[in-house]
Amino acid sequence: MKIYNTLTRKKEEFVPVTSGKVKIYLCGPTVYNYFHIGNARTFLFFDVVRKYFIYKGFDVTYVQNITDIDDNLINQSNKEKIPVPKIAEKYIKAFLDDTAAIGISPADHNPKATEYLAEMIGLIKDLEKKGFAYEVNGDVYFSIEADKTYGELSGKNIEDLQVGARVEENTQKKHPGDFTLWKKAKPGEPKWQSPWGEGRPGWHTECVVMSQKLLGKTFDIHGGAIDLIFPHHENEIAQSRGANNCLHANYWMHGGFLNITGEKMSKSLDNFFLTRDVLKKFDAETIRFFFLSKHYRSSIDYNEAILQESEQAVKNFYSALRKVGYQILRDEVPEYTEDQLKMKETFINAMDDDFNTAIAISVLFEAAKKARNTDDANYAHLLVELGSVLGFFTDLESKLKDNVDSISNDLIQLLIDYRNRFKKEKNWALADAIRDDLKKLGIQLKDTAAGTEWEMD
Fold first, then answer.
1. I want to staple 371 with a disulfide (CB 3.0 to 4.6 A). Which of 217, 230, 320, 333 is the partner?
2. In 3D, which of 166, 157, 163 has the Cα closest to residue 175?
3. In Å, what is the CA distance from 237 to each residue of 86, 147, 184, 203, 208?
4. Range 2-264 has CATH code 3.10.129.10
5. Structure confidence at residue 160 (pLDDT)
6. Cβ atoms of residues 377 and 330 within 8 Å
7. Within a 10 A sphere around the Cβ of 421, how many other Cβ atoms?
8. Where are the domains of the chain?
9. Tell me: the pLDDT tens digits for 374-394?
10. How far is C-alpha 397 from the chain's CA centre?
11. Distances from the Cα of 41 to the Cα of 29, 76, 131, 252, 302, angstroms
């Protein structure tokens, strides 16, 4: 199994820290608003990573943090005139509701930054003691010049880091690239006591502490979107190495952007769609199909026409399952043929090659097509087995029932329409035959001024 490691810029064989176990940390939301569909792409992909490791037999510990204190929350608090803890509580609930609605399984741990303040202060004190941090007027900074390997994740050189878009200008820093570990409190802001005075931790410090507290000093996989490579993940690595003199995570995985007309979708650019709003147009499996049809490291343009094609593709999966009567046959244990085993092998090889979900999705297409064409239920079983690895079919029984009910309703209405046409043509014999046959099936027709109504006995 190979994973593209951003740290080494190549695919590497996956070797877990502990045999049979996988520890994953994914940077989660800063809860000052609802998350947009670009965020959802990252969250959803790592949901698949987790599911695939479980499918492969690993014991997975999956952590996704929640940033519940930073400048954005303070600004939103002022805007909504609600205390910061209440803002956090409101959007944490929204985050959990929306991830569930889009079909993402709950993380094993959702640590909140404010729950680990003592550990964050401890880390900063340790970095200060070891010469990696310094305090100026109540603010504490990490000295990037003290870290001789700083920039190895992003490929940036310290000499090239000048004041700019991603590096905040501050004349009290030793180097413009030095980043904040502890921020002195301003009047009216949330604050905690520390050896450097009242203040709050920096964002980059929060993730170091929460990940190491729950997963260990060196864990397997650290994930996030590509825009977190610098400065966030670079600064996590620097703190971890400074404090512990070891790798923070062995594999760094970063997903591509979801774009709007070629530009990254983001709140700062005000060119985003909220996940909860997109879910009003398309269901969770349609969105999942849309994302997984491309490799996770590639960029995708948000496109409703392609989402509609994705919706039809998912419907075709269920159509294949209905055709072979999967709702009746689902409890059977399949004995796969050589062709079916080969398809399964193609799926596994694709996922083992840096989670190539685009090829894995094509195997689902093939299984659905052969299920329809051959009526071989084993293809349906294969479709469900492999599709479940990608997060499809989580509510299979309900979906199959809903689809059957919907088709049944449509067929009854179609027969009623035919009966009404025969009545207009005064073909009473056929009109009465439809009414009587439906009655034998327990369906009563009632002609009213508003039209023909029906009900079950």
1. 320
2. 163
3. 32, 10, 23, 13, 8
4. no
5. 75
6. no
7. 12
8. 2-264, 309-393, 398-456
9. 989 999 999 999 999 999 999
10. 24
11. 13, 24, 39, 17, 11
